[in-house]
Amino acid sequence: MIRQKILQQLLEWIECNLEHPISIEDIAQKSGYSRRNIQLLFRNFMHVPLGEYIRKRRLCRAAILVRLSAKSMLDIALSLHFDSQQSFSREFKKLFGCSPREYRHRDYWDLANIFPSFLIRQQQKTECKLVNFPETPIFGDSFKYDIEVSNKSPDEEVKLRRHHLARCMNNFKTDIYFVSTFEPSTKSVDLLTVETFAGTVCKQTDSEMPKEWTINRGLYASFRYEGEWGALP
Q: Which residues form the HTH araC/xylS-type domain (predicted)?
Protein backbone atom coordinates (compact mmCIF):
# COMPACT_ATOMS: atom_id res chain seq x y z
CA MET A 1 0.00 0.00 0.00
CA ILE A 2 2.86 2.36 0.85
CA ARG A 3 4.54 1.54 -2.46
CA GLN A 4 1.34 2.24 -4.38
CA LYS A 5 0.98 5.59 -2.63
CA ILE A 6 4.57 6.48 -3.54
CA LEU A 7 3.92 5.55 -7.18
CA GLN A 8 0.72 7.62 -7.18
CA GLN A 9 2.67 10.65 -5.98
CA LEU A 10 5.38 10.04 -8.59
CA LEU A 11 2.82 9.79 -11.40
CA GLU A 12 1.32 13.11 -10.31
CA TRP A 13 4.76 14.70 -10.11
CA ILE A 14 5.73 13.43 -13.57
CA GLU A 15 2.54 14.85 -15.11
CA CYS A 16 3.21 18.25 -13.56
CA ASN A 17 6.81 18.29 -14.79
CA LEU A 18 6.65 16.99 -18.37
CA GLU A 19 7.69 20.45 -19.56
CA HIS A 20 10.59 20.56 -17.09
CA PRO A 21 13.82 18.53 -17.02
CA ILE A 22 13.16 15.09 -15.47
CA SER A 23 15.90 12.60 -14.62
CA ILE A 24 15.78 9.17 -12.99
CA GLU A 25 17.99 10.65 -10.26
CA ASP A 26 15.35 13.31 -9.52
CA ILE A 27 12.65 10.65 -9.25
CA ALA A 28 14.82 8.41 -7.07
CA GLN A 29 15.56 11.30 -4.72
CA LYS A 30 11.90 12.27 -4.51
CA SER A 31 10.81 8.69 -3.78
CA GLY A 32 13.52 7.86 -1.26
CA TYR A 33 14.50 4.77 -3.26
CA SER A 34 17.75 4.12 -5.06
CA ARG A 35 17.83 4.65 -8.81
CA ARG A 36 17.80 0.89 -9.44
CA ASN A 37 15.04 0.11 -6.95
CA ILE A 38 12.65 2.82 -8.10
CA GLN A 39 12.98 1.59 -11.69
CA LEU A 40 12.29 -2.00 -10.58
CA LEU A 41 9.33 -0.88 -8.48
CA PHE A 42 7.84 1.16 -11.32
CA ARG A 43 8.25 -1.64 -13.85
CA ASN A 44 6.80 -4.29 -11.53
CA PHE A 45 3.67 -2.25 -10.81
CA MET A 46 3.20 -0.40 -14.12
CA HIS A 47 4.62 -3.01 -16.52
CA VAL A 48 6.61 -0.43 -18.47
CA PRO A 49 10.12 0.97 -17.87
CA LEU A 50 10.14 4.35 -16.10
CA GLY A 51 12.20 6.05 -18.80
CA GLU A 52 9.91 4.79 -21.54
CA TYR A 53 6.85 5.97 -19.63
CA ILE A 54 8.24 9.51 -19.34
CA ARG A 55 9.24 9.56 -23.02
CA LYS A 56 5.81 8.42 -24.21
CA ARG A 57 3.99 10.84 -21.93
CA ARG A 58 6.10 13.69 -23.32
CA LEU A 59 5.37 12.60 -26.87
CA CYS A 60 1.65 12.49 -26.12
CA ARG A 61 1.80 15.98 -24.61
CA ALA A 62 3.59 16.99 -27.81
CA ALA A 63 0.84 15.41 -29.93
CA ILE A 64 -1.78 17.51 -28.14
CA LEU A 65 0.26 20.68 -28.68
CA VAL A 66 0.86 19.80 -32.34
CA ARG A 67 -2.81 19.17 -32.94
CA LEU A 68 -4.43 21.92 -30.90
CA SER A 69 -1.97 24.80 -30.66
CA ALA A 70 -0.34 27.13 -33.16
CA LYS A 71 3.12 26.57 -31.66
CA SER A 72 5.98 25.86 -34.04
CA MET A 73 7.49 22.36 -34.06
CA LEU A 74 10.75 23.81 -32.75
CA ASP A 75 9.02 25.48 -29.80
CA ILE A 76 7.20 22.24 -28.96
CA ALA A 77 10.41 20.22 -29.17
CA LEU A 78 12.32 22.62 -26.92
CA SER A 79 9.49 23.04 -24.40
CA LEU A 80 9.43 19.28 -23.87
CA HIS A 81 13.24 19.06 -23.64
CA PHE A 82 14.06 17.16 -26.81
CA ASP A 83 17.65 17.66 -27.98
CA SER A 84 16.57 19.14 -31.31
CA GLN A 85 13.63 19.42 -33.67
CA GLN A 86 15.12 16.55 -35.68
CA SER A 87 15.32 14.18 -32.70
CA PHE A 88 11.79 15.19 -31.70
CA SER A 89 10.51 14.41 -35.20
CA ARG A 90 12.22 10.99 -35.19
CA GLU A 91 10.78 9.98 -31.82
CA PHE A 92 7.36 11.34 -32.77
CA LYS A 93 7.28 9.31 -35.98
CA LYS A 94 8.26 6.12 -34.11
CA LEU A 95 5.19 6.41 -31.89
CA PHE A 96 2.61 7.95 -34.22
CA GLY A 97 3.75 6.73 -37.64
CA CYS A 98 4.01 10.17 -39.24
CA SER A 99 5.88 13.44 -38.84
CA PRO A 100 4.56 16.14 -36.48
CA ARG A 101 3.72 18.31 -39.46
CA GLU A 102 1.66 15.55 -41.11
CA TYR A 103 -0.05 14.89 -37.77
CA ARG A 104 -1.09 18.55 -37.52
CA HIS A 105 -2.58 18.80 -40.99
CA ARG A 106 -4.53 15.54 -41.16
CA ASP A 107 -8.28 15.97 -41.51
CA TYR A 108 -8.80 13.46 -38.69
CA TRP A 109 -7.23 12.83 -35.29
CA ASP A 110 -6.06 9.23 -34.86
CA LEU A 111 -5.86 8.54 -31.11
CA ALA A 112 -4.81 4.89 -31.47
CA ASN A 113 -1.24 5.44 -30.27
CA ILE A 114 -1.96 8.01 -27.58
CA PHE A 115 -0.33 6.82 -24.34
CA PRO A 116 -2.51 8.16 -21.48
CA SER A 117 -1.28 8.84 -17.99
CA PHE A 118 -1.53 5.90 -15.61
CA LEU A 119 -3.38 8.32 -13.33
CA ILE A 120 -6.34 8.10 -15.70
CA ARG A 121 -6.16 4.31 -15.75
CA GLN A 122 -6.47 4.26 -11.96
CA GLN A 123 -9.71 6.22 -12.00
CA GLN A 124 -13.11 4.58 -12.05
CA LYS A 125 -13.90 3.22 -15.48
CA THR A 126 -16.67 4.92 -17.41
CA GLU A 127 -18.91 2.90 -19.67
CA CYS A 128 -18.68 3.95 -23.31
CA LYS A 129 -20.78 2.87 -26.25
CA LEU A 130 -20.90 3.88 -29.89
CA VAL A 131 -24.15 5.30 -31.23
CA ASN A 132 -25.29 6.36 -34.69
CA PHE A 133 -26.66 9.88 -34.31
CA PRO A 134 -28.94 11.38 -36.97
CA GLU A 135 -28.53 14.87 -38.36
CA THR A 136 -30.26 17.05 -35.78
CA PRO A 137 -30.98 20.79 -35.85
CA ILE A 138 -30.90 22.41 -32.42
CA PHE A 139 -31.90 25.90 -31.36
CA GLY A 140 -30.14 27.92 -28.70
CA ASP A 141 -27.20 30.22 -28.17
CA SER A 142 -23.42 29.98 -28.00
CA PHE A 143 -20.66 31.04 -25.66
CA LYS A 144 -16.92 31.22 -26.23
CA TYR A 145 -13.82 31.08 -24.06
CA ASP A 146 -10.05 30.58 -24.28
CA ILE A 147 -8.21 27.84 -22.43
CA GLU A 148 -4.54 26.93 -22.16
CA VAL A 149 -3.82 23.87 -24.31
CA SER A 150 -1.88 22.23 -21.49
CA ASN A 151 -4.36 23.28 -18.80
CA LYS A 152 -4.48 20.48 -16.21
CA SER A 153 -7.03 22.12 -13.91
CA PRO A 154 -9.72 23.81 -16.04
CA ASP A 155 -11.86 24.72 -13.02
CA GLU A 156 -13.07 28.08 -14.34
CA GLU A 157 -14.00 26.61 -17.72
CA VAL A 158 -15.92 23.77 -16.06
CA LYS A 159 -17.80 26.30 -13.89
CA LEU A 160 -18.71 28.29 -17.00
CA ARG A 161 -20.11 25.21 -18.76
CA ARG A 162 -22.07 24.20 -15.66
CA HIS A 163 -23.51 27.72 -15.43
CA HIS A 164 -24.87 27.53 -18.98
CA LEU A 165 -26.10 23.97 -18.46
CA ALA A 166 -27.96 24.98 -15.28
CA ARG A 167 -29.58 27.89 -17.11
CA CYS A 168 -30.76 25.59 -19.90
CA MET A 169 -32.09 23.06 -17.39
CA ASN A 170 -34.11 25.79 -15.68
CA ASN A 171 -35.57 27.05 -18.96
CA PHE A 172 -36.27 23.81 -20.79
CA LYS A 173 -37.75 20.50 -19.67
CA THR A 174 -36.35 18.48 -22.53
CA ASP A 175 -33.03 17.07 -23.72
CA ILE A 176 -30.24 19.66 -23.81
CA TYR A 177 -27.37 19.55 -26.29
CA PHE A 178 -23.91 21.08 -25.91
CA VAL A 179 -21.87 21.09 -29.13
CA SER A 180 -18.28 22.36 -28.96
CA THR A 181 -15.79 23.31 -31.64
CA PHE A 182 -12.23 24.42 -31.05
CA GLU A 183 -9.34 26.02 -32.89
CA PRO A 184 -6.00 27.65 -32.03
CA SER A 185 -6.56 31.07 -30.50
CA THR A 186 -5.55 34.21 -32.37
CA LYS A 187 -4.51 35.77 -29.03
CA SER A 188 -1.66 33.40 -28.15
CA VAL A 189 -0.03 30.21 -29.43
CA ASP A 190 -0.57 28.72 -25.95
CA LEU A 191 -4.35 29.18 -26.05
CA LEU A 192 -7.22 27.23 -27.56
CA THR A 193 -10.50 28.95 -28.43
CA VAL A 194 -13.55 26.85 -27.58
CA GLU A 195 -17.02 27.77 -28.84
CA THR A 196 -19.95 25.85 -27.38
CA PHE A 197 -23.49 25.91 -28.71
CA ALA A 198 -26.13 25.08 -26.08
CA GLY A 199 -29.68 24.34 -27.10
CA THR A 200 -32.59 21.95 -27.60
CA VAL A 201 -34.41 20.43 -30.55
CA CYS A 202 -37.45 22.62 -29.79
CA LYS A 203 -37.43 25.94 -31.61
CA GLN A 204 -38.35 28.80 -29.29
CA THR A 205 -40.56 31.66 -30.36
CA ASP A 206 -38.91 34.21 -28.08
CA SER A 207 -35.58 35.89 -28.67
CA GLU A 208 -33.66 34.19 -25.87
CA MET A 209 -32.62 31.23 -28.04
CA PRO A 210 -32.33 32.76 -31.51
CA LYS A 211 -29.60 30.73 -33.19
CA GLU A 212 -29.63 27.38 -34.99
CA TRP A 213 -26.93 24.73 -35.14
CA THR A 214 -26.98 21.40 -36.97
CA ILE A 215 -25.38 18.35 -35.36
CA ASN A 216 -23.87 16.29 -38.16
CA ARG A 217 -25.01 12.74 -38.69
CA GLY A 218 -22.39 10.15 -37.74
CA LEU A 219 -20.96 7.66 -35.26
CA TYR A 220 -20.44 9.12 -31.79
CA ALA A 221 -19.01 7.87 -28.50
CA SER A 222 -21.62 8.02 -25.73
CA PHE A 223 -20.73 8.27 -22.02
CA ARG A 224 -23.22 8.11 -19.17
CA TYR A 225 -22.62 10.19 -16.04
CA GLU A 226 -24.29 9.60 -12.69
CA GLY A 227 -23.08 11.48 -9.65
CA GLU A 228 -22.86 14.77 -7.81
CA TRP A 229 -23.36 18.05 -9.67
CA GLY A 230 -20.03 19.34 -8.31
CA ALA A 231 -18.17 16.43 -9.90
CA LEU A 232 -19.70 16.87 -13.36
CA PRO A 233 -16.79 17.36 -15.82
A: 8-106
Between 210 and 19, residue with greater pLDDT: 19
Query: How many distinct structural domains can be found in the chain?
Result: 2
Q: State the residue range of the domain holding 139.
A: 128-231
Higher pLDDT, 118 or 39: 39
Q: Report the pLDDT averaged over residues 155-164.
A: 85
Do 133 and 98 fall within a single domain?
A: no
- Residue 154 and residue 113 share a domain: no
Same domain, 112 and 171: no
151 and 71 Cβ atoms separated by less than 8 Å: no
pLDDT in tens, 111-138: 889 998 888 665 556 778 999 999 999 9
DSSP secondary structure string, the chain? -HHHHHHHHHHHHHHHTTTS---HHHHHHHHTS-HHHHHHHHHHHHSS-HHHHHHHHHHHHHHHHHHH----HHHHHHHTT-S-HHHHHHHHHHHHSS-HHHHHH-SS---TT----HHHHTSPP--EEEEEE--EEEEEEEEEEEEETT-S--HHHHHHHHHHHHHHHHH-SS--EEEEEEEE-SS-TTEEEEEEEEEESSPPSSSSS-EEEEEPPEEEEEE---S-GGG--
Residue 209 pLDDT greater than 80, yes or no: no
Q: Is the domain of 77 the same as that of 93? A: yes
Q: Going edge to edge, which strands form the sheet with 191-200?
A: 177-184, 191-200, 136-148, 211-215
Domain closes at, from 95, 121, 147: 121
